[in-house]
Amino acid sequence: MGEAENIGPGLSRTLVVDLSAGSYFTACKPGMTGTGIGQAPFTVTPSSAADAATNAPGEADLVARIDTANTNYASYVKDQIGQLVTGTAAFAAAYTAGDDNTARGLYAATRAHWERVETVAESFGDLDPKLDLREADLEEGQDWTGWHAIEKDLWPADAEAGFAAYPAAERARLAGLLVADTATLNEKVQPLTFTLAQQTNGAIGLLDEVASGKVTGEEEVWSHTDLWDFQANVDGARVLYAGVRDVLVQKDAALAATLDTRFAALQTLLDTQRVGDGFVLYTDLSTGTVKGLADQVNALAEPLGRLTAALVL
Amino acid sequence: MKGGDSRKRKNGPFPRAEGAETPLSREEGDGQADAGANASATLPAVGAPAEAPRGISRRGLFGLAGAGVAGVGLGIAADRGVQALAAAGAPAAGSTVYPFYQEHQAGIVTPAQDRLHFAAFDLAPGATRADLISLLQDWTTAAAALTAGHDIGDFGAVGGSYDAPPEDTGEAFGLPPAGLTITVGFGPTLFTTSAGVDRFGIASARPDALAELPHFPGDQLDDARSGGDLCIQACADDPQVAVHAIRNLSRIAFGRAAIRWSQLGFGRTSSTSTSQATPRNLFGFKDGTANVKAEQPAVVDEQVWVGAGDGPAWLAGGSYLVARRIRMTIETWDRTALREQETVFGRTKGDGAPLSGGTEFTEPDFAATGKDGAPLIDRASHMRLAHPAQNNGVQLLRRGYNFVDGNDDLGRLEAGLFFISYQRRPSQFTTVQLALARHDAMNEYVRHVGSALFAVPPGAARGSYLGAALFA
């Protein structure tokens, strides 16, 4: 029915389980073996008619829905990374060839595929810094590669005095690494499967990314295309949420209604900043506009933080 | 929607079990979310602070009925105060509790606590009347719990699901109530936006007096530090407790309202009770000697509380709150001669006695003159201009705090007085401030950079919520 693990001596931890009416018992299994000690029986009765009705669809139905959500999300990740591979090849070719205008045009749109599945892409500890490290995150002496190293070269206007454009060999090296590391990422995501908690925490994590890096303008300090990333993070979170929404409606309809409303409100607000296929540059946003976006991110992220607990019991 | 949880979660896996309230906390909130009913409960009179008993959990025992609890401990959100209160001997420092459900909101005539966190909020662009009401209900529930020294929510800071963010942020865990009061006010823009929109169907209930304050000579107001649809004043004797309150109340508001500006105050500059010594402001002078005091009920009724016939019935028993962020150019002040400093104030720097003679609480004699015939208390002195005798008897209940928000770009301390006053009518403040703005010798050393006016509704009855009468 449920368990709480890794409880050290003297610690307490709450275990929340969703149970149908019936007789149960609790027990502690030190070392996770044996029949357990300190068995304590208890009885569950329906807390209300409404709760009984809500739980009516039954475990089997929920398990099937969760299975479907897992499968669908794995497909989504593979699709996005596949598009990232294609887009990165075109971007790298333009950059290496010195076609800066084309490279700049492809930059934000290609990165959107990364940002949509950022929590998955980041889960490979060695690849994330190679592909997505910002200059401010560098350690002393660390080789700076990936999207943002190239971003600075393409948008040098805000660079420090004395910044020199990368020579052709450096461009070729960075572009080659970008393509190779993205190919490695593509291999790594192929066998992935996702638990329900990984999906819900992924959605929460994507909104955290928006709140900590995108709405502050810290992600794209040279290109100022933060709103592209913002939109992509929200896209990814919404896909994850949509995958589990049916289950959530059964478990916590009020939370589902709130999340529906807040996702829609955030998208409406983001849409006001669209220009053509893209968005207003971050540096052109007024303080008031940024605060409005930040408020709406908080409005969504706060209830979204409860998604895992509401679903994973 | 955090506060909304507590209502919803009543049917959750851990039904709440009431009990274990001590007699002294009986009138306090305990997080029960029964707001919404338009209660006509009998209100307790404004009471003296209650010293919480030692060693007794004031948090209701709950979670015991939770069936899913394995042999892994119980889901009891901890009683913040237990550690502090368990100390032997006299009542632990910080154990003062002010009842939340009262005739008037606490935090006005309550003896001024040492620390402040004040926040102004704007309602979200799409917020509805239902959102506003639910926010006030959730704030009321949370404020009742916080002021009683409890965590917010059903499970508090550490008792909830391991897979969910804790309901309470936790930085006040283990701290005593610290005399926390939470006072909520309504700004003019809550009723009618600057564009004239009545967002919540309450424009007709706006008191005529709840309008933008006039521009005073010398005002250099920053819009980002002024105004606001709602405000919360959190005062406590522990800064962490005050900040915890604002942090959790603003978290509850996400999606319905967001902070517009906020201000920390590290030391009180006024006494609101004769039991308190007069503190000093950052000019180094005693401030608030002639303040309205809680022990003067007739003066409080005359000067502070909105009367039944003053305006809309929903505000009767409430008050008006004026907040002014007053920046002090203290570096300039500090190189001013003591004679000049005392002349500016009209009092001695040491004892705070009026320059006409006597001790701190001697009534000033504005007619007294020196050898050259000049008044001993200068005509431009702050004390003379602010004194009731010079303002047709008008008094303000001042409740301000010193602040230092780091430094400015020139390396000067970003310091001053966060002035707060409560009064029956905003015109009381306007009268005094106009006299000061025109003539006060202190103006050379101060800049008013933030300003706000709020109508503070009366206290909530248990079972109801702050401002309920406005929506009746």
From TrEMBL, chain B:
Any one Gene Ontology molecular-function term assigned to this protein's record: lyase activity
Top-level taxon of the source organism: Bacteria
Tell me which InterPro entries the record gives.
Dimeric_a/b-barrel (IPR011008), Dyp_perox_C (IPR048328), Dyp_perox_N (IPR048327), Dyp_peroxidase (IPR006314), EfeB/EfeN (IPR006313)
* Annotated stretches, region: Disordered: 1-39
- Read off the SUPFAM superfamilies from this record: Dimeric alpha+beta barrel
Q: Any idea which UniProt keywords this protein has?
A: Heme, Iron, Lyase, Metal-binding, Oxidoreductase, Peroxidase, Signal
- The EC number of this protein is 1.11.1.-
Report the sequence similarity comment from the record.
Belongs to the DyP-type peroxidase family.
Name assigned to this protein: Deferrochelatase
The gene from which this protein is expressed is efeB
